[in-house]
Automatic annotation (TrEMBL):
This is TIP41-like protein. PANTHER family: GAF/PUTATIVE CYTOSKELETAL PROTEIN, TIP41-LIKE PROTEIN. One of its GO terms (biological process) is TOR signaling. One of its GO terms (cellular component) is cytosol.
């Protein structure tokens, strides 16, 4: 899903998909299988909007690049259930979790290099790690009940069922795909903190990956992935969404002790090295959506 786009007309027609009109604001998507799936890629926040976000979130720190108007939204039309992803809610999760700051040897260099009023004070989680796994809205008769953090009013149930990633790698045509960057920070040139969400729609269903990726050069790597999958079926039947969340983490020191490279340049692609990072936490849940 490196590029953004839609599938071939013949595949869209065969699946019964209806493309949504793409507008000047960057919104695009399609309707299929009782779902309306829409993404939007917009520029980073302006300076004024940035300040407003700091006030709303009660912080004086935000990532360098916040794509505040970008989002991914999946709406189950019949039930009004909406699953959506945006930077503001993700940063609310960061603020609420408030992990201790990662110790960085380079921090002393940052301070020596800075003027007094520019000193880096590591008294907050400057990595912007978030437990966020999506936001949910239920639209019933024009009224909206919204949950804007990781906790949900929808009935997610723990389960043993796993998303079949091997089946998702089949040759099934891709009808729509997009990647939305929610925020990014280069940690003063000492690594990367990146939150993105990718979506892929096939004739059989939709699949998405919400990924928080952190690399503090020479110190730590952290990966928090949330995957969701929903198979299309009869619109009168119960719709099931599977959600898997996995937190992986390792220090450069521990990887080096296992014989893996200690050079940060070897860890540019989280997909390529995710299996090297030990699992800290993993859980799988299921959401049953009933039609009205």
């Amino acid at each position: 899903m490196e590029d953004v786009g839609v599938g071939r007309d013949v595949d869209l027609k065969a699946a019964g998909a209806e493309l949504l009109p793409e507008d000047s604001d960057g919104r695009r998507g399609l309707r299929l299988g009782g779902w309306q799936i829409q993404s939007c890629n917009r520029p980073i926040l302006t300076s004024l909007a940035f300040q407003q976000w700091e006030e709303k979130l009660g912080t004086s720190h935000l990532p360098e690049m916040v794509f505040g108007e970008s989002y991914l939204c999946l709406l189950h039309v019949e039930s009004g259930t909406k699953i959506h992803f945006n930077a503001f809610d993700a940063l609310k999760g960061w603020k609420q979790e408030a992990l201790p700051p990662v110790e960085v040897p380079a921090a002393a260099k940052w301070k020596f290099r800075s003027k007094p009023f520019q000193q880096v004070i590591l008294d907050y989680d400057y990595t912007f790690t978030t437990p966020y796994c999506g936001s949910e809205t239920i639209e019933l008769n024009q009224e909206k009940i919204t949950t804007e953090n990781e906790c949900s009013n929808l009935c997610w149930e723990d389960c043993d069922e796993r998303i079949d990633l091997a089946a998702l790698s089949s040759k099934e045509p891709i009808l729509f795909y997009d990647e939305v960057i929610l925020y990014e920070d280069e940690l003063a040139d000492n690594g990367v903190s990146l939150l993105t969400v990718k979506v892929r729609v096939m004739p059989s269903g939709w699949f998405l990956l919400l990924r928080y990726w952190l690399r503090v050069d020479g110190v730590l790597m952290r990966l928090r992935d949330t995957r969701m999958y929903c198979a299309f079926n009869d619109q009168n039947a119960t719709c099931v969404v599977l959600r898997e969340s996995c937190w992986r983490e390792a220090t450069f020191q521990s990887l080096s002790a296992k014989g893996f490279p200690s050079d940060s340049a070897a860890y540019g692609d989280p997909s390529a090295i995710s299996n090297r990072l030990p699992v800290i936490k993993h859980n799988t849940q299921r959401l049953k959506i009933l039609s009205k």
